[in-house]
Design the sequence.
């Protein structure tokens, strides 16, 4: 690999030729001086690129290109608001940032800026997750990166975890309080209680997602991009017969807010249905690993924040503890 300079009599011109990665290129010059000057500069640039590892790398893509492709190829409705806000921040503070170490640096600056602005850690994590997903897809799906970079972007655990857990009777009361005119929305809320699914996941369900008494979510329908299988109870199976649900996220939110107001619990959020699902499973003796897989959590650490066992179960634990004080009578 190098540049050669030669004279072509048939064209009365000087030609500079080079072969890079099997591809041959050439340029023509009127004088020998111009040809040799070009060959010298081009050769020096080639050596520098080789030294820096540029030759043979994949073409650079911008974060904006990655976002556009992700939105066009995957169901990102659950991330829509965060995607828009991340795109806006990048446009203002890191325009045309390339998917590389450059993007990691920009994401960390965004992380710091949002923290200084006073946003909750969970909100910041949702924004960072948008960047992580683009990085993950760029490496694993699109072949835009030679090395995975998403693992280098950390999401600190939020310290604002919620502990709102409703009993089965309280869930039934909440469901009963949904106004009659919100029949479809009531079905969505009930299915959330019975499956622990996110609102975006529920509204994206299609008949093809139901198979043999289970809901099977495809990678492009989950928050972490991994498939998930959720078993359906008899009660839940009655709800998936008319998919997709003929409603919107705003209508479901409105129905839920009216129901919580009716029972005097304005503190309850729709996402708390996932917490209640996990808590009820734990209280009935289900293992954390099973709950983790059902909810689609990335680790047991995340699951353990929500799956708190029923305090009543500790009675049986106390009964198993040994009696100590009366076993060692004082001897004289």
Sequence:
């Amino acid at each position: 690999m190098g540049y050669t300079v030669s004279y072509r009599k048939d064209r009365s011109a000087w030609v500079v030729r080079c072969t890079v990665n099997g591809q041959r290129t050439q340029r023509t010059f009127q004088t020998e001086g111009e040809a040799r000057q070009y060959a010298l500069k081009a050769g020096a640039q080639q050596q520098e690129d080789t030294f820096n590892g540029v030759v043979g790398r994949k073409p650079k893509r911008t974060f904006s290109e990655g976002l556009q492709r992700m939105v066009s190829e995957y169901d990102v409705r659950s991330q829509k608001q965060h995607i828009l806000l991340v795109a806006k921040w990048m446009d203002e503070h890191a325009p045309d940032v390339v998917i590389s170490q450059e993007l990691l640096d920009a994401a960390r600056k965004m992380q710091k800026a949002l923290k200084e602005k006073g946003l909750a850690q969970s909100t910041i994590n949702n924004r960072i997750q948008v960047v992580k997903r683009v990085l993950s897809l760029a490496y694993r799906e699109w072949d835009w990166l030679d090395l995975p970079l998403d693992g280098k972007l950390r999401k600190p655990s939020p310290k604002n975890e919620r502990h709102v857990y409703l009993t089965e009777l309280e869930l039934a009361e909440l469901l009963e309080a949904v106004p009659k005119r919100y029949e479809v929305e009531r079905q969505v809320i009930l299915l959330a209680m019975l499956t622990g699914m996110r609102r975006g996941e529920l509204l994206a369900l299609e008949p093809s997602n139901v198979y043999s008494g289970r809901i099977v979510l495809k990678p492009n329908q989950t928050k972490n991009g991994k498939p998930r299988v959720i078993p359906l109870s008899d009660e839940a199976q009655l709800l998936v017969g008319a998919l997709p649900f003929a409603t919107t996220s705003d209508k479901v939110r409105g129905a839920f807010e009216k129901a919580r107001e009716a029972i005097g619990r304005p503190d309850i959020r729709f996402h708390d249905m996932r917490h209640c699902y996990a808590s009820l499973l734990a209280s009935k003796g289900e293992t954390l690993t099973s709950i983790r897989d059902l909810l689609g959590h990335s680790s047991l650490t995340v699951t353990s924040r929500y799956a708190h066992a029923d305090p009543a179960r500790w009675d049986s634990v106390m009964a198993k503890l040994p009696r100590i004080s009366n076993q060692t009578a004082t001897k004289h």
In short: The mean pLDDT is 84. Strands lie at 3-8, 13-20, 23-29, 210-211, 214-217, 228-231. The CA atoms of residues 237 and 248 lie 21 Å apart.
